[in-house]
Amino acid sequence: MTSRFVRAAAAGAALAVSASAFAACSSEPETTPDDVITIFAPQDAGQEQNLDTNAFTKLLEEKFDVDLQFETTTWDGTAAGEKRQISLASGDYPDAYMLIPWIDQFSSEELVKLGGQGVLMPLDDLIGEDTPNLTAAFEKEPGFKELATSPDGKIWGIPAWNDCYHCSYPSKLWMNSAWLDTLGLEQPTTPEELRTVLEAFKTQDPNGNGEADEIPLSAAGGSSLLSYLMNPFVYTAEMYANAEGTTPATLGTSGDQVVLQPTKDEWRDGISYVASLYADGLIDEAAFTQNGEAIIAKGNSAEGVIVGSAAMMHPWFVSDDNEDGRYTQYNAVPPLTGPNGSDATYSGGGAGAAPGATFVITNRSSEAKQKKLMQIVDFMVSYDGHLLGEFGVEGVNWARPEAGDVALDETLEPNFKVLTPPEGEGVNNSWGPIAQFFSDAEFRNGQVTATDVDTPEGYERRLFEATKHYEGHESDELFPYWDVAVTGETATELATIQTNVENFVVQAAAEFVTGVRDIGSDEDWAEFQQNLTDLGADRYVEIYQEAWDASK
Question: Signal peptide: which range, if any (predicted)?
Fold first, then answer.
Protein backbone atom coordinates (compact mmCIF):
# COMPACT_ATOMS: atom_id res chain seq x y z
CA MET A 1 0.00 0.00 0.00
CA THR A 2 1.51 3.33 -1.01
CA SER A 3 1.94 6.29 1.30
CA ARG A 4 -0.40 8.41 -0.82
CA PHE A 5 -3.10 5.75 -0.40
CA VAL A 6 -2.56 5.63 3.34
CA ARG A 7 -3.03 9.39 3.53
CA ALA A 8 -6.29 9.18 1.56
CA ALA A 9 -7.64 6.38 3.69
CA ALA A 10 -6.64 8.11 6.91
CA ALA A 11 -8.31 11.36 5.87
CA GLY A 12 -11.54 9.57 5.04
CA ALA A 13 -11.45 7.52 8.21
CA ALA A 14 -10.93 10.65 10.31
CA LEU A 15 -14.15 12.16 8.99
CA ALA A 16 -16.06 8.95 9.56
CA VAL A 17 -14.67 8.34 13.05
CA SER A 18 -15.45 11.87 14.19
CA ALA A 19 -19.17 11.11 14.00
CA SER A 20 -18.81 8.37 16.63
CA ALA A 21 -17.54 10.90 19.13
CA PHE A 22 -20.65 13.08 19.00
CA ALA A 23 -22.75 11.14 21.48
CA ALA A 24 -19.93 10.67 23.97
CA CYS A 25 -19.14 14.37 24.05
CA SER A 26 -22.72 15.59 24.24
CA SER A 27 -24.75 13.49 26.65
CA GLU A 28 -25.77 16.51 28.76
CA PRO A 29 -25.33 19.62 26.64
CA GLU A 30 -25.63 23.00 28.28
CA THR A 31 -28.22 25.39 26.93
CA THR A 32 -28.97 29.11 26.89
CA PRO A 33 -32.22 30.84 28.00
CA ASP A 34 -35.30 30.25 25.86
CA ASP A 35 -35.09 33.74 24.36
CA VAL A 36 -31.51 33.17 23.15
CA ILE A 37 -31.03 30.83 20.19
CA THR A 38 -27.55 29.87 19.02
CA ILE A 39 -27.03 28.93 15.36
CA PHE A 40 -24.06 27.57 13.40
CA ALA A 41 -24.07 29.04 9.87
CA PRO A 42 -21.74 29.93 6.97
CA GLN A 43 -21.08 33.64 6.57
CA ASP A 44 -19.94 35.28 3.34
CA ALA A 45 -17.48 37.72 4.86
CA GLY A 46 -16.02 38.42 1.42
CA GLN A 47 -19.31 40.11 0.52
CA GLU A 48 -19.41 41.96 3.85
CA GLN A 49 -22.06 39.67 5.30
CA ASN A 50 -22.27 39.77 9.10
CA LEU A 51 -25.05 37.57 10.45
CA ASP A 52 -25.03 39.25 13.85
CA THR A 53 -25.86 42.67 12.39
CA ASN A 54 -27.68 41.45 9.27
CA ALA A 55 -30.98 43.17 8.42
CA PHE A 56 -32.81 39.85 8.11
CA THR A 57 -31.43 38.73 11.46
CA LYS A 58 -32.83 41.89 13.05
CA LEU A 59 -36.18 41.32 11.35
CA LEU A 60 -36.38 37.78 12.73
CA GLU A 61 -35.36 38.88 16.22
CA GLU A 62 -38.12 41.47 16.30
CA LYS A 63 -40.78 39.30 14.67
CA PHE A 64 -40.15 36.28 16.91
CA ASP A 65 -38.96 38.07 20.07
CA VAL A 66 -35.66 36.22 20.21
CA ASP A 67 -31.93 36.93 20.38
CA LEU A 68 -30.08 35.06 17.60
CA GLN A 69 -26.40 34.39 18.28
CA PHE A 70 -24.15 32.88 15.60
CA GLU A 71 -21.18 30.59 15.39
CA THR A 72 -19.96 31.20 11.84
CA THR A 73 -17.82 29.46 9.28
CA THR A 74 -16.70 30.37 5.76
CA TRP A 75 -18.13 29.62 2.32
CA ASP A 76 -15.16 27.34 1.62
CA GLY A 77 -16.59 23.80 1.62
CA THR A 78 -13.55 22.06 3.08
CA ALA A 79 -13.01 24.58 5.87
CA ALA A 80 -16.74 24.73 6.62
CA GLY A 81 -16.98 20.95 6.82
CA GLU A 82 -14.06 20.71 9.20
CA LYS A 83 -15.44 23.41 11.47
CA ARG A 84 -18.86 21.75 11.56
CA GLN A 85 -17.29 18.43 12.52
CA ILE A 86 -15.27 20.10 15.27
CA SER A 87 -18.34 21.96 16.53
CA LEU A 88 -20.32 18.74 16.88
CA ALA A 89 -17.51 16.63 18.30
CA SER A 90 -16.70 19.24 20.97
CA GLY A 91 -20.07 18.77 22.66
CA ASP A 92 -20.39 22.56 22.89
CA TYR A 93 -22.61 22.82 19.84
CA PRO A 94 -25.43 25.31 19.17
CA ASP A 95 -29.22 24.98 19.24
CA ALA A 96 -29.39 24.64 15.48
CA TYR A 97 -27.37 24.41 12.27
CA MET A 98 -28.40 26.37 9.17
CA LEU A 99 -26.18 25.44 6.25
CA ILE A 100 -25.85 25.80 2.49
CA PRO A 101 -26.19 22.59 0.44
CA TRP A 102 -23.39 23.26 -2.01
CA ILE A 103 -20.99 24.25 0.76
CA ASP A 104 -21.55 21.69 3.51
CA GLN A 105 -24.86 20.15 4.47
CA PHE A 106 -25.69 17.11 6.59
CA SER A 107 -25.82 13.88 4.60
CA SER A 108 -28.64 11.37 5.04
CA GLU A 109 -26.25 9.01 6.79
CA GLU A 110 -25.17 11.72 9.24
CA LEU A 111 -28.77 12.56 10.06
CA VAL A 112 -29.64 8.95 10.88
CA LYS A 113 -26.51 8.50 12.97
CA LEU A 114 -26.79 11.77 14.89
CA GLY A 115 -30.51 11.33 15.32
CA GLY A 116 -30.02 7.84 16.70
CA GLN A 117 -27.43 9.17 19.13
CA GLY A 118 -29.86 11.79 20.38
CA VAL A 119 -27.80 14.73 19.15
CA LEU A 120 -30.49 15.81 16.68
CA MET A 121 -34.15 16.27 17.50
CA PRO A 122 -36.83 14.68 15.28
CA LEU A 123 -38.97 17.29 13.53
CA ASP A 124 -41.97 15.14 12.57
CA ASP A 125 -44.13 16.26 15.50
CA LEU A 126 -43.08 19.91 15.03
CA ILE A 127 -44.43 20.03 11.47
CA GLY A 128 -48.16 20.69 11.24
CA GLU A 129 -50.56 23.45 12.20
CA ASP A 130 -47.76 25.64 13.56
CA THR A 131 -45.85 25.39 10.27
CA PRO A 132 -48.51 26.10 7.62
CA ASN A 133 -46.08 27.24 4.93
CA LEU A 134 -43.81 24.22 5.25
CA THR A 135 -46.81 21.89 5.34
CA ALA A 136 -48.20 23.53 2.19
CA ALA A 137 -44.83 23.22 0.46
CA PHE A 138 -44.71 19.49 1.27
CA GLU A 139 -48.19 19.10 -0.23
CA LYS A 140 -47.40 21.19 -3.33
CA GLU A 141 -44.17 19.32 -4.04
CA PRO A 142 -44.24 15.76 -2.61
CA GLY A 143 -40.61 15.36 -3.63
CA PHE A 144 -39.69 18.00 -1.04
CA LYS A 145 -41.13 15.91 1.79
CA GLU A 146 -39.53 12.77 0.37
CA LEU A 147 -36.18 14.54 0.31
CA ALA A 148 -36.66 15.64 3.91
CA THR A 149 -37.47 12.10 5.06
CA SER A 150 -34.37 10.19 6.13
CA PRO A 151 -33.75 6.54 5.26
CA ASP A 152 -35.07 5.54 8.72
CA GLY A 153 -38.43 7.17 7.93
CA LYS A 154 -37.99 10.17 10.23
CA ILE A 155 -37.49 13.86 9.46
CA TRP A 156 -34.29 14.88 11.24
CA GLY A 157 -33.80 18.07 9.26
CA ILE A 158 -35.10 20.25 6.42
CA PRO A 159 -33.24 20.26 3.09
CA ALA A 160 -33.14 23.00 0.49
CA TRP A 161 -35.54 22.26 -2.36
CA ASN A 162 -34.18 24.25 -5.26
CA ASP A 163 -35.65 23.81 -8.73
CA CYS A 164 -32.65 25.50 -10.25
CA TYR A 165 -32.66 24.71 -13.96
CA HIS A 166 -29.06 25.71 -14.59
CA CYS A 167 -27.94 23.93 -11.39
CA SER A 168 -29.39 20.69 -12.75
CA TYR A 169 -26.62 20.57 -15.34
CA PRO A 170 -23.60 21.69 -13.30
CA SER A 171 -20.73 20.58 -15.54
CA LYS A 172 -20.51 23.24 -18.23
CA LEU A 173 -17.63 24.68 -20.23
CA TRP A 174 -17.51 28.45 -20.76
CA MET A 175 -15.28 29.49 -23.66
CA ASN A 176 -14.12 32.90 -24.85
CA SER A 177 -15.94 33.46 -28.14
CA ALA A 178 -13.91 36.59 -28.90
CA TRP A 179 -10.77 34.47 -28.93
CA LEU A 180 -12.43 31.97 -31.27
CA ASP A 181 -13.35 34.80 -33.65
CA THR A 182 -9.85 36.25 -33.53
CA LEU A 183 -8.34 32.88 -34.45
CA GLY A 184 -11.01 31.97 -36.98
CA LEU A 185 -12.16 28.94 -35.00
CA GLU A 186 -15.53 27.40 -34.18
CA GLN A 187 -16.68 26.01 -30.84
CA PRO A 188 -15.32 22.46 -30.49
CA THR A 189 -17.71 19.51 -30.75
CA THR A 190 -15.37 16.60 -29.96
CA PRO A 191 -12.48 16.01 -27.54
CA GLU A 192 -9.91 16.30 -30.32
CA GLU A 193 -11.46 19.52 -31.62
CA LEU A 194 -11.22 20.88 -28.08
CA ARG A 195 -7.53 19.97 -28.03
CA THR A 196 -7.01 21.90 -31.27
CA VAL A 197 -8.76 24.98 -29.86
CA LEU A 198 -6.81 24.88 -26.60
CA GLU A 199 -3.52 24.52 -28.49
CA ALA A 200 -4.42 27.60 -30.54
CA PHE A 201 -5.28 29.52 -27.37
CA LYS A 202 -1.90 28.60 -25.94
CA THR A 203 0.29 29.32 -28.96
CA GLN A 204 -1.41 31.92 -31.20
CA ASP A 205 -1.67 34.90 -28.83
CA PRO A 206 -5.46 35.37 -28.99
CA ASN A 207 -5.39 38.27 -26.51
CA GLY A 208 -2.96 40.08 -28.82
CA ASN A 209 -0.51 41.34 -26.20
CA GLY A 210 2.54 39.62 -27.70
CA GLU A 211 3.05 37.47 -24.60
CA ALA A 212 2.44 33.78 -23.97
CA ASP A 213 0.30 34.49 -20.91
CA GLU A 214 -2.88 32.75 -22.01
CA ILE A 215 -4.46 30.02 -19.85
CA PRO A 216 -6.30 27.78 -22.32
CA LEU A 217 -8.52 25.99 -19.77
CA SER A 218 -8.97 26.59 -16.05
CA ALA A 219 -11.23 25.48 -13.20
CA ALA A 220 -11.60 25.65 -9.44
CA GLY A 221 -11.40 22.37 -7.57
CA GLY A 222 -11.38 20.28 -10.73
CA SER A 223 -14.71 18.47 -10.32
CA SER A 224 -16.60 20.24 -13.13
CA LEU A 225 -13.49 20.01 -15.28
CA LEU A 226 -13.24 16.23 -14.93
CA SER A 227 -16.95 15.69 -15.40
CA TYR A 228 -17.16 17.77 -18.58
CA LEU A 229 -14.01 16.33 -20.16
CA MET A 230 -14.65 12.68 -19.22
CA ASN A 231 -18.33 12.30 -20.10
CA PRO A 232 -17.52 11.85 -23.81
CA PHE A 233 -15.63 8.71 -22.73
CA VAL A 234 -17.55 7.46 -19.68
CA TYR A 235 -20.44 8.74 -17.58
CA THR A 236 -18.86 10.82 -14.83
CA ALA A 237 -21.06 12.54 -12.27
CA GLU A 238 -20.31 16.04 -11.05
CA MET A 239 -18.57 15.85 -7.68
CA TYR A 240 -19.11 19.42 -6.52
CA ALA A 241 -20.45 19.75 -2.95
CA ASN A 242 -18.99 16.33 -2.25
CA ALA A 243 -16.14 17.37 0.04
CA GLU A 244 -17.05 14.68 2.57
CA GLY A 245 -18.27 12.03 0.15
CA THR A 246 -21.90 12.90 0.84
CA THR A 247 -23.10 11.59 -2.54
CA PRO A 248 -22.11 8.41 -4.42
CA ALA A 249 -20.71 10.39 -7.34
CA THR A 250 -18.46 7.55 -8.54
CA LEU A 251 -21.37 5.21 -9.19
CA GLY A 252 -23.15 4.60 -12.48
CA THR A 253 -25.33 1.90 -13.90
CA SER A 254 -25.24 -0.72 -16.63
CA GLY A 255 -28.79 -1.88 -17.14
CA ASP A 256 -29.98 -2.98 -13.71
CA GLN A 257 -26.49 -3.23 -12.28
CA VAL A 258 -24.73 -0.61 -10.12
CA VAL A 259 -21.20 0.00 -11.36
CA LEU A 260 -18.23 1.79 -9.83
CA GLN A 261 -17.21 3.90 -12.83
CA PRO A 262 -13.48 4.18 -11.98
CA THR A 263 -13.16 0.39 -12.39
CA LYS A 264 -13.98 0.66 -16.10
CA ASP A 265 -11.46 0.84 -18.94
CA GLU A 266 -13.47 3.74 -20.36
CA TRP A 267 -12.76 5.72 -17.18
CA ARG A 268 -9.06 5.12 -17.75
CA ASP A 269 -9.47 6.35 -21.34
CA GLY A 270 -11.14 9.53 -20.10
CA ILE A 271 -8.46 10.24 -17.52
CA SER A 272 -5.78 9.54 -20.15
CA TYR A 273 -7.30 12.22 -22.37
CA VAL A 274 -7.43 14.78 -19.56
CA ALA A 275 -3.89 13.89 -18.50
CA SER A 276 -2.63 14.46 -22.05
CA LEU A 277 -4.14 17.96 -22.07
CA TYR A 278 -2.50 18.70 -18.74
CA ALA A 279 0.88 17.34 -19.87
CA ASP A 280 0.77 19.63 -22.92
CA GLY A 281 0.15 22.70 -20.74
CA LEU A 282 -3.42 23.14 -21.98
CA ILE A 283 -4.97 22.93 -18.50
CA ASP A 284 -4.17 25.40 -15.74
CA GLU A 285 -1.69 23.82 -13.32
CA ALA A 286 -3.81 25.14 -10.45
CA ALA A 287 -7.12 23.78 -11.80
CA PHE A 288 -7.39 21.09 -9.10
CA THR A 289 -6.13 23.12 -6.17
CA GLN A 290 -7.15 26.76 -6.54
CA ASN A 291 -10.15 28.20 -4.76
CA GLY A 292 -12.73 30.62 -6.09
CA GLU A 293 -10.73 33.72 -5.22
CA ALA A 294 -7.77 32.49 -7.24
CA ILE A 295 -9.69 31.87 -10.46
CA ILE A 296 -11.59 35.15 -10.04
CA ALA A 297 -8.22 36.92 -9.89
CA LYS A 298 -7.29 35.30 -13.20
CA GLY A 299 -10.64 35.98 -14.80
CA ASN A 300 -10.41 39.67 -13.84
CA SER A 301 -6.67 40.07 -14.37
CA ALA A 302 -5.68 43.72 -14.66
CA GLU A 303 -3.19 42.69 -17.34
CA GLY A 304 -6.02 41.81 -19.71
CA VAL A 305 -7.98 38.72 -20.71
CA ILE A 306 -5.89 35.62 -20.02
CA VAL A 307 -8.46 32.81 -19.50
CA GLY A 308 -9.59 31.07 -22.67
CA SER A 309 -12.13 28.76 -21.07
CA ALA A 310 -13.26 27.56 -17.66
CA ALA A 311 -15.20 24.51 -16.55
CA MET A 312 -17.83 25.43 -13.97
CA MET A 313 -21.58 25.70 -13.48
CA HIS A 314 -21.71 29.36 -14.52
CA PRO A 315 -19.12 32.01 -15.44
CA TRP A 316 -18.81 33.65 -12.03
CA PHE A 317 -15.04 34.00 -12.48
CA VAL A 318 -15.49 37.16 -14.60
CA SER A 319 -17.14 40.28 -13.18
CA ASP A 320 -19.16 42.82 -15.14
CA ASP A 321 -17.03 45.86 -14.28
CA ASN A 322 -14.08 45.18 -16.60
CA GLU A 323 -13.89 47.98 -19.16
CA ASP A 324 -12.81 45.62 -21.96
CA GLY A 325 -16.20 43.87 -21.95
CA ARG A 326 -14.80 40.42 -21.19
CA TYR A 327 -17.92 39.70 -19.11
CA THR A 328 -19.89 39.14 -22.33
CA GLN A 329 -17.25 37.05 -24.12
CA TYR A 330 -17.80 33.66 -22.47
CA ASN A 331 -20.41 31.31 -23.91
CA ALA A 332 -21.35 27.75 -23.00
CA VAL A 333 -19.95 24.93 -25.12
CA PRO A 334 -22.42 22.03 -25.55
CA PRO A 335 -21.38 18.53 -24.42
CA LEU A 336 -18.56 17.09 -26.51
CA THR A 337 -19.27 13.96 -28.55
CA GLY A 338 -16.86 11.08 -27.98
CA PRO A 339 -16.85 7.27 -27.88
CA ASN A 340 -19.56 7.41 -25.19
CA GLY A 341 -21.74 9.88 -27.09
CA SER A 342 -22.46 13.38 -25.81
CA ASP A 343 -23.49 12.86 -22.20
CA ALA A 344 -24.08 15.83 -19.93
CA THR A 345 -24.11 15.49 -16.17
CA TYR A 346 -27.60 15.83 -14.76
CA SER A 347 -27.88 16.17 -10.99
CA GLY A 348 -31.42 14.94 -10.42
CA GLY A 349 -33.24 14.28 -7.19
CA GLY A 350 -35.02 17.59 -6.93
CA ALA A 351 -32.96 19.64 -9.34
CA GLY A 352 -30.45 21.57 -7.24
CA ALA A 353 -31.42 19.63 -4.11
CA ALA A 354 -29.54 16.75 -2.50
CA PRO A 355 -30.55 14.19 0.14
CA GLY A 356 -29.74 15.34 3.66
CA ALA A 357 -30.52 18.61 5.42
CA THR A 358 -29.40 22.20 5.65
CA PHE A 359 -31.38 22.84 8.86
CA VAL A 360 -31.33 20.70 12.01
CA ILE A 361 -32.18 21.26 15.67
CA THR A 362 -29.89 19.78 18.32
CA ASN A 363 -30.71 18.41 21.77
CA ARG A 364 -29.29 21.59 23.23
CA SER A 365 -32.51 23.32 22.18
CA SER A 366 -35.41 23.44 24.66
CA GLU A 367 -38.98 22.68 23.57
CA ALA A 368 -39.70 26.41 23.42
CA LYS A 369 -36.68 26.98 21.19
CA GLN A 370 -37.59 24.08 18.96
CA LYS A 371 -41.01 25.59 18.30
CA LYS A 372 -39.48 29.02 17.70
CA LEU A 373 -36.90 27.65 15.28
CA MET A 374 -39.58 25.84 13.30
CA GLN A 375 -41.62 29.05 13.12
CA ILE A 376 -38.56 30.88 11.79
CA VAL A 377 -37.98 28.23 9.11
CA ASP A 378 -41.68 28.26 8.27
CA PHE A 379 -41.49 32.02 7.75
CA MET A 380 -38.56 31.55 5.36
CA VAL A 381 -40.66 29.09 3.34
CA SER A 382 -43.43 31.70 2.92
CA TYR A 383 -43.39 33.94 -0.14
CA ASP A 384 -42.48 37.20 1.65
CA GLY A 385 -40.18 35.47 4.14
CA HIS A 386 -38.33 33.80 1.30
CA LEU A 387 -37.79 37.08 -0.54
CA LEU A 388 -36.70 38.91 2.62
CA GLY A 389 -34.44 36.06 3.71
CA GLU A 390 -32.72 35.19 0.46
CA PHE A 391 -32.65 38.58 -1.26
CA GLY A 392 -32.95 41.30 1.40
CA VAL A 393 -35.01 44.44 1.92
CA GLU A 394 -37.98 45.18 -0.32
CA GLY A 395 -37.38 48.28 -2.41
CA VAL A 396 -33.62 48.01 -1.90
CA ASN A 397 -32.66 44.46 -2.90
CA TRP A 398 -35.87 43.33 -4.62
CA ALA A 399 -39.23 44.65 -5.78
CA ARG A 400 -42.60 43.31 -6.83
CA PRO A 401 -43.23 43.12 -10.60
CA GLU A 402 -44.59 46.00 -12.64
CA ALA A 403 -46.51 46.12 -15.90
CA GLY A 404 -44.33 45.01 -18.80
CA ASP A 405 -41.92 42.94 -16.71
CA VAL A 406 -40.96 39.56 -18.20
CA ALA A 407 -40.39 36.37 -16.19
CA LEU A 408 -37.36 34.16 -16.73
CA ASP A 409 -39.74 31.52 -18.07
CA GLU A 410 -41.90 33.69 -20.27
CA THR A 411 -44.84 31.30 -19.91
CA LEU A 412 -45.12 32.23 -16.20
CA GLU A 413 -46.49 35.31 -14.49
CA PRO A 414 -43.61 37.40 -13.09
CA ASN A 415 -43.48 37.36 -9.28
CA PHE A 416 -40.45 39.44 -8.17
CA LYS A 417 -37.36 41.15 -9.50
CA VAL A 418 -33.94 41.58 -7.96
CA LEU A 419 -32.64 45.15 -7.74
CA THR A 420 -29.06 46.41 -7.85
CA PRO A 421 -28.62 48.79 -4.90
CA PRO A 422 -26.23 51.75 -5.12
CA GLU A 423 -22.63 50.79 -4.36
CA GLY A 424 -22.11 50.19 -0.66
CA GLU A 425 -25.80 49.77 0.12
CA GLY A 426 -27.82 46.62 0.74
CA VAL A 427 -24.77 44.38 1.20
CA ASN A 428 -25.77 42.96 4.60
CA ASN A 429 -29.52 42.73 4.18
CA SER A 430 -30.08 39.00 3.60
CA TRP A 431 -29.04 35.49 4.59
CA GLY A 432 -28.71 34.51 0.94
CA PRO A 433 -28.88 30.75 0.24
CA ILE A 434 -29.12 29.94 3.97
CA ALA A 435 -32.77 31.08 3.68
CA GLN A 436 -33.45 29.22 0.42
CA PHE A 437 -35.58 26.35 1.70
CA PHE A 438 -38.26 26.13 -0.98
CA SER A 439 -37.49 27.49 -4.43
CA ASP A 440 -39.75 25.52 -6.72
CA ALA A 441 -39.76 26.06 -10.48
CA GLU A 442 -42.69 28.46 -10.27
CA PHE A 443 -40.86 30.69 -7.80
CA ARG A 444 -37.44 30.62 -9.46
CA ASN A 445 -38.56 30.88 -13.05
CA GLY A 446 -41.12 33.57 -12.28
CA GLN A 447 -38.33 35.96 -11.38
CA VAL A 448 -38.31 39.10 -13.53
CA THR A 449 -35.18 39.00 -15.67
CA ALA A 450 -33.85 41.43 -18.26
CA THR A 451 -34.06 40.14 -21.82
CA ASP A 452 -30.51 41.27 -22.67
CA VAL A 453 -28.32 38.36 -21.52
CA ASP A 454 -25.16 40.43 -21.82
CA THR A 455 -26.17 42.70 -18.95
CA PRO A 456 -25.79 41.85 -15.25
CA GLU A 457 -29.57 42.11 -14.95
CA GLY A 458 -29.91 39.40 -17.60
CA TYR A 459 -27.49 36.98 -15.97
CA GLU A 460 -30.15 34.45 -14.90
CA ARG A 461 -31.53 34.42 -18.44
CA ARG A 462 -28.01 33.91 -19.75
CA LEU A 463 -27.72 30.78 -17.58
CA PHE A 464 -31.24 29.65 -18.49
CA GLU A 465 -30.52 29.86 -22.21
CA ALA A 466 -27.05 28.30 -21.91
CA THR A 467 -28.41 25.29 -20.03
CA LYS A 468 -30.61 24.37 -22.98
CA HIS A 469 -27.40 23.15 -24.68
CA TYR A 470 -27.10 20.44 -22.01
CA GLU A 471 -30.71 19.39 -21.49
CA GLY A 472 -31.54 16.19 -23.33
CA HIS A 473 -28.02 14.78 -23.01
CA GLU A 474 -28.62 12.96 -19.73
CA SER A 475 -26.75 9.67 -19.53
CA ASP A 476 -28.50 6.29 -19.45
CA GLU A 477 -25.81 5.30 -16.94
CA LEU A 478 -26.91 7.82 -14.30
CA PHE A 479 -27.45 6.23 -10.88
CA PRO A 480 -30.58 7.69 -9.16
CA TYR A 481 -29.13 7.60 -5.66
CA TRP A 482 -31.75 10.07 -4.38
CA ASP A 483 -34.41 7.35 -4.80
CA VAL A 484 -32.41 4.81 -2.81
CA ALA A 485 -32.72 4.37 0.97
CA VAL A 486 -30.10 2.69 3.15
CA THR A 487 -31.06 2.28 6.80
CA GLY A 488 -29.97 0.89 10.15
CA GLU A 489 -26.52 -0.56 10.76
CA THR A 490 -25.97 -0.78 7.00
CA ALA A 491 -26.26 3.01 6.76
CA THR A 492 -23.56 3.37 9.41
CA GLU A 493 -21.33 0.96 7.52
CA LEU A 494 -22.03 2.74 4.25
CA ALA A 495 -21.15 6.19 5.65
CA THR A 496 -17.56 5.14 6.33
CA ILE A 497 -17.06 3.26 3.05
CA GLN A 498 -18.61 6.03 0.95
CA THR A 499 -16.51 8.73 2.55
CA ASN A 500 -13.34 6.74 1.98
CA VAL A 501 -14.07 5.68 -1.59
CA GLU A 502 -15.38 9.03 -2.81
CA ASN A 503 -12.57 11.07 -1.29
CA PHE A 504 -9.97 8.65 -2.58
CA VAL A 505 -11.27 8.78 -6.16
CA VAL A 506 -11.25 12.58 -6.13
CA GLN A 507 -7.64 12.57 -4.98
CA ALA A 508 -6.47 9.75 -7.25
CA ALA A 509 -8.13 11.28 -10.32
CA ALA A 510 -6.23 14.51 -9.75
CA GLU A 511 -3.01 12.53 -9.24
CA PHE A 512 -3.49 10.67 -12.52
CA VAL A 513 -4.15 13.90 -14.41
CA THR A 514 -1.18 15.76 -12.94
CA GLY A 515 1.26 12.85 -13.31
CA VAL A 516 1.69 11.88 -9.66
CA ARG A 517 0.25 8.55 -10.78
CA ASP A 518 0.88 7.35 -14.34
CA ILE A 519 -2.40 6.52 -16.05
CA GLY A 520 -0.45 4.82 -18.85
CA SER A 521 1.20 2.43 -16.43
CA ASP A 522 -0.55 -0.91 -16.03
CA GLU A 523 1.15 -1.20 -12.65
CA ASP A 524 -0.25 2.12 -11.42
CA TRP A 525 -3.69 1.26 -12.79
CA ALA A 526 -3.64 -2.12 -11.02
CA GLU A 527 -2.54 -0.42 -7.80
CA PHE A 528 -5.45 2.02 -8.11
CA GLN A 529 -7.91 -0.84 -8.51
CA GLN A 530 -6.41 -2.61 -5.50
CA ASN A 531 -6.68 0.62 -3.48
CA LEU A 532 -10.40 0.73 -4.29
CA THR A 533 -10.83 -2.87 -3.22
CA ASP A 534 -8.98 -2.26 0.03
CA LEU A 535 -11.30 0.67 0.79
CA GLY A 536 -14.36 -1.56 0.44
CA ALA A 537 -15.42 -0.73 -3.11
CA ASP A 538 -17.02 -4.15 -3.63
CA ARG A 539 -19.13 -3.75 -0.49
CA TYR A 540 -19.93 -0.16 -1.52
CA VAL A 541 -21.47 -1.37 -4.78
CA GLU A 542 -23.19 -4.28 -3.04
CA ILE A 543 -24.95 -2.04 -0.51
CA TYR A 544 -26.27 0.31 -3.16
CA GLN A 545 -27.25 -2.57 -5.44
CA GLU A 546 -29.37 -4.15 -2.70
CA ALA A 547 -30.96 -0.80 -1.80
CA TRP A 548 -31.67 0.05 -5.45
CA ASP A 549 -33.26 -3.34 -6.06
CA ALA A 550 -35.44 -2.85 -2.96
CA SER A 551 -36.59 0.58 -4.15
CA LYS A 552 -38.02 -0.68 -7.43
Answer: 1-23
